[in-house]
Amino acid sequence: MFDKxxxxxxxxRNVGPADAPSGFAFDAKLGYYRGLGLSxxxxxxxxxxxxAVPREAIRFDEGNGPLSLDEMETAFDRRWPFGASxxxxxxxxxxxxxGEHQLEFSQRLRISYMPFPSINSDAKILTIA
Length: 129
Description:
The chain is mainly beta.
């Protein structure tokens, strides 16, 4: 239902020094209407230009400091509110070249009353200036 809003338009950017980026980032929203504790986010998957990003290269920050996906599993005191943007940062030497990039983002969420995970995904072409 909210899948087309997961990737925030215009949010793709390189991170780190302009002459030597350490990666790239984009903003994302939660695909569940109530918000969710970070420990209930089972997976965040990112693909850029057809290449899957390794789990260990992904960092998540809802505004309280970046976490690896492994650290999110025990972040019992942190939440991702519905409608709030979080920053997804990918560690990748050199970042992304200027121009258009195909970005795919998927969330697998554990919802307490559902007997199966909620899987939400979005794909967009975004541009880095």
